[in-house]
Structure formats: C-alpha cells, structure tokens
Amino acid sequence: MSNSASTAPRASLLKGRLLAFAAIILVSANLRSAVTSLTPLLDRLGHLFDFGSTMTGVLGMMPTAAFAVFALGTPRLIRWIGLERTAVLTMLLATAGLLLRASAGSVGMLLAGSAVALAGMGIGNVVVPPLVKRYFADRVGTLSTLYITVLQAGTMVPALLAVPVADRFDWRVSLGMWSLLSLAALLPWVLLARRTPRPRHAADTDVAHAPGRVWKTSLGWGMALMFGMTSLGTYSLFTWLPKVMVEAGASEAFGGVMVALYSAIGLLPSLLVPALAVRMRNPFPIAMLVVGLNAVAFAGLLWAPMQAPWLWVVIAGLGPSTFPLGLTLINLRTRTPAGSAALSGFMQGVGYSLASLGPLLFGWLHGLSGGWAGSFAFLMLCSLVLLVAAWFACKPQQLEDHWA
What we know:
By secondary structure, the protein is mostly helical. The protein has two domains: 1-209, MFS general substrate transporter like domains (Growth Hormone, Chain: A, Up-down Bundle), CATH 1.20.1250; 210-404, Growth Hormone, Chain: A. The protein is built from 19 helices and no strands. It has helices at 2-29, 33-36, 42-49, 53-81, 83-102, 107-135, 140-168, 171-176, 178-195, 218-247, 252-265, 267-279, 284-303, 309-318, 322-332, 337-355, 358-369, 373-394, 399-403. It is globular, with a radius of gyration of 21 Å.
C-alpha cells in the first residue's frame, strides 16, 4: 500500500516535469519569431504601405525597446499572477500580435501588431529562467543549453523562411504562420497554470519575496552590463554587417549571407557555454575569450574585410558567447525562482535598453567619418566594459545573500 502511495506522487511529478519541459521548449522557440520573420520583408512592406527608411528604423528598434520595457515590469507581473500564468499571457500576446500584424491593412496596424507580439516575447524572455529554476533546479545546465539553443534556432528559421513563403504564398501567410507555433506553446502552459493555485496576494508566491533591490548589487549591474554590451554588439552587427561588406566591395547578396553565417555560428556557444558555466566555479575565462575574439574579428572586418570575410564573421559569431552565459548565470547566481525572476528582469531590462542604442551609435559614428574605424573602436570599448562587468557577474555569489 505504501509503495503504491509513494509511486503515485512520483508519477504525477514526472508527468508535470515532462509537461513543463515541453512548455519551456515551445515558448523558447517563439521568443524571436516576431523579430526575424519581419525584417527580411521590410523592403517589400515599405513599397506596399508606402513607408521609408525612418519607419524601417522604428520597426528595427522596436524589439530591443519592447524587450527592455517589458523585462523591467515582468517581475512585478509574476508576483501578481504567478510564473505559469505569466507564461500563458506571454503566448496569448504573441499569438494575438502575430495575427494582428498578418492582417494589417496599414502601417499603423503593422506597428500595433508588432508591439503586442513583442510585448509577449519581452515578458517571455524574463519568465523562462525562473521557470527552469522552479521545475528543473537539478538540471539547470541541461535545460539552459536546450532552451537557449532552441531560442537561437527560433531566431534563424523565421528569417530563412520569410521570403520563400512570401514568394510562394503571400506576405500575410509568411508573417501569420508563426501564430500557430505560439498557439501550440500556449496549450501546455494553460494546463500547468490550471494545476497551480493562483496567488491570493503577493505573499502567497515565492516570487513575492524578491525585493526590488537588484539595482543596488554589484552582481545585478555586472549581469546587466555584460548582457547589455553583448546584445549591443550583436544587434549592431546584425544591422550594419551587410553595409560593411558592400562598402568593402561585396554584393548585397554576399552581405546577407554573412549575416546568416553570423547568426548560425551563434548556435555553437548555445550548445557549449551553459554546460561549461555549470562546471566552472568562476566562468570569467569565457568572458576573457569573448573579448579576445571580438578584438580579432573587429580588426579583421576593419582592416581586411575581403581578405578573409568568412573567417572574420565566424570569429565574430563566437563573440556573443556571453549571451548564453548571462542567461545561465541567472539561475547559477540565485537560489530561488524569486531571485531568478528579479535578476532576469533587471538584467534584460537594462541590457536591452543599452542594446537599442548600439545600431544607432554604430551608424552615427560611420556617418561622422565615412569610415568604420570609429564604429569598431566603439564596439571594442563596449567589449572592455563587458570584461569589467563580467568580473562581477561571474565571481561566485548568490543574489539572495545581498538581500540578507
């Protein structure tokens, strides 16, 4: 009798973890689809809706701006409704926004749909790490590797399919088909949310015990600046790498291939870095390697872009290794889902705010001189800031100890 009684809870726990695993993987696959499914079609949509480079710039800056704004507010939302219901809201907003954007009849509707979808994805960026902490505290490295890799794949695939699907069917199909994926991710979170009691008030959830004092800690600022400088460099190269190649004598098509390669190489750190970080007491050497890789890549792209473009872009693609490192450290430097949610929100809110300035400043510096020396010097300076920030982010400590 006791054996069967003890087996039932274990079976229920296993079933719950399997459902949570599927839910985390599915939501991770959706966190960039609103971004990369749109950008390859901006020129086509510009002709259709009669907007120019200014509106293209607005649409290009919306992702990092939305990620920043909603990252800062998500820990409070989690305190109100709980982790699982926040994940449900994430996918509801993503689905609604993607469908609204696909049905757009004007540039205003295109902006509105993008804003709603990106709001959901900005919330999702923050809620996934504490969900990993809650359901898989004993498998943080493995789950971090899986969800970050799926996130990277979810960045690449929509970009690759956007134009072919639009050519074969229609731009509305190309933009709207990703709502099916977000709808699929919604279902397991609804089931998990139904199993989880709704918080009566803030004190009923462990997330409520996370004070809003991350900004007073060296760990919080180290994480935020490391993540921010990583994202700033990444989005700068996403935006400007094609022009760097074209001004060096390459074709526009070759510039596009280089961006695709830069994005694809990012899968390798996603597979390796979380597992390494879990095994290292202090993963600061990873940040040191990143700064060295950045120095080589920036020098190559500046002084010899067409001598070995593939090599420089591959090295540059390994540079954002501190992105998966930051996402993994959220759970390695906290003890509870409360701490994880608070650190995740602060890191991504501040980080994406800084990242939104990257493409603008990179291009402004190019415009001042007509060359790329100032732009790449700016990115190198950001890499040095990253190195200092990583010193504080990587050293062994726990966020909750600062609150004590």
